Amino acid sequence: EVDVPTSQHNLVSVTKSTLDAGSASDFITQASIRYSSGNYRVNLTGRNAGLSDTLPVAIDPKYLMPGCMNYTDGHSLVLAKIDDYGELHFLNCSTTETRDIFTYNGMNTVAGITPRGYDETGEWNGCYQGLRVLRFPIALVNSAGDVVGIRRRTNEEMKEFGFSTEQYEIIRELISNQFIAEGTLKPQSFHDLIRLRMKRVDHIKPLEFLEAYADELLEIYQIREQFVQDAWRDVLQNGPIVYPEEQRDENIFQANGRWETWSSPSSDVDRRNKYFYLADWMDYAIRCYEMMPQFVKLDGLEKYNVQSQAGLARALIDEKRRIFRAHSMTYKKSNREQVPLTLVDIEERLYDLSFDPNHPPELRWGAPAGSPELASAPERYTPVPNGERIPMKETYLWESYYRCLGLRETGMSALRGMFTEGFPVRKKLDQQLAKWFLFEQPIAVTASAKPPQPAPAPAPKSTSTRVHVLVPHS
After folding, report:
1. Which one of 108, 286, 355, 383 is CB 3.0 to 4.6 Å from 472, fit for a cystine?
2. What is the DSSP string of 33-79?
3. Are β-strands 88-93 and 75-82 bridged in parallel, bridged antiparallel, or unpaired?
4. Tens-digit pLDDT string for the chain (474 aa)
5. Cβ 362 vs Cβ 373: under 8 Å
6. What's the CA dihedral at 465, 468, 469, 472 to 10 degrees?
7. How far apart are CA 231 and CA 229, in angstroms?
8. How many Cβ atoms from other residues are within 10 Å of residue 10's Cβ?
């Protein structure tokens, strides 16, 4: 019932089961009210740890399936689906007073797993992070077959459902060797290992995926335009909307009233994550081209005569630019003028799209400062809880950090005096793939020989004992 940083156990203080609940609605309501992510922060060897709600699960399609949990950095996610490429997609089900359900696209959240024995305080200290399976109950019956109680399965009994500590061993191997031995292959990240084990396809076609995914990206921004127009109409009709500055129970991502209805910081995070999923997927295809080149079909890329990871990266960057230029939409300015935007334009403005509903459509769509496009935008202030009115230019500047986030924040949101530079900003697709230009060794595609490993780029050997396999935004 109490959300605590860590716990030796989570002994049940109040029980609520379907056996004694007044109704299904009563059971679900009570279960959600009394749930806390602190129920996951129980180390495997803690006192009474056998009463914990979840256990780490093997990276295996038989066990890692929708309904499993992922605990990461103070938050809990539910695995919603696994696509054909082995990518995990999560639902984030918040249990704060401003409850919400939203999706995370891709495996950005599978990060920060603590390896076994990472410090001197305990071999399993911190090993409650990562992918987990619920500790399934067993019904207790009497001689007549009537259910008289429920107990939790032991660790040994949970092996049937995938209980395994291999995640923590995998991270240790990554730290030690910079790769993971998986048969004859050597994936270099935990994400790649997950994809390798969980995929259901025999090959991938990067260009075909890119063309289909561009359609999806365009669609989610077309949907955003309708939302921006509806929000602007509400502000014109009902007046400005208060920014939840430094509120104890609200922030820009989870608030009450009109801000919750008409602002877009959460959905903009989802859109940025969907864009970066494309970058990560292309990165994955390039890595696979070295590990198992027969898995990567180069249909449509023949003119590039791809012979290396660097060559594939260049081809995909060029094709992305071509396809993004061919995908376009329009948005309506505050003066009703239509402005065309291609996916190239949206990509360039990725960190400039305002989430503040008080801002006119020009600023919501990131019109550049000093441009004719922005000249038509009327001045609109943003109020804060104490009644002060913050000029539009200042709010847009102070909101810069939040426009670059890849994850929602759960703490208070600042505005006045917020830092406007010096924070990490994730590189976009072209820059992310450009790192492969350091790898020019041709890939030998044969049926029997293992493809040669590319020469690694020189880098200092990490001495860190805690690994974040993929940074959500940086």
Report:
1. 108
2. HH--GGGG-B-TTSTTGGG-SEEEB-SSTTTS-TT-EEEETTEEEEE
3. antiparallel
4. 344 445 555 555 666 667 777 888 877 777 666 656 666 677 787 777 777 888 999 999 999 999 998 876 566 788 989 988 888 888 766 544 444 455 554 565 676 688 887 766 667 877 888 899 999 989 899 999 998 888 889 999 999 999 999 999 998 888 888 888 888 778 878 888 898 899 999 999 999 999 999 999 999 999 999 999 999 999 999 999 999 999 988 999 988 899 999 999 999 998 998 999 899 899 989 988 988 899 999 999 999 999 999 999 999 999 999 999 999 999 999 999 999 999 999 999 999 999 999 999 999 999 999 999 999 999 999 999 999 999 999 999 999 999 999 888 878 999 999 999 999 999 999 999 999 998 666 655 544 334 444 444 444 433 333 333 333 332
5. yes
6. -170
7. 5
8. 21
β-bridge pairing 130-134 and 101-104: unpaired
- Only one residue has tokens 């350091």, namely 438
10: left (phi over 0), alpha (psi -120 to 50) or beta: beta
**DSSP, residue by residue, 192-252:** HHHHHHH---S-B-HHHHHHHHHHHHHHHHHHHHHHHHHHHHHHHHH------BT-SS--S
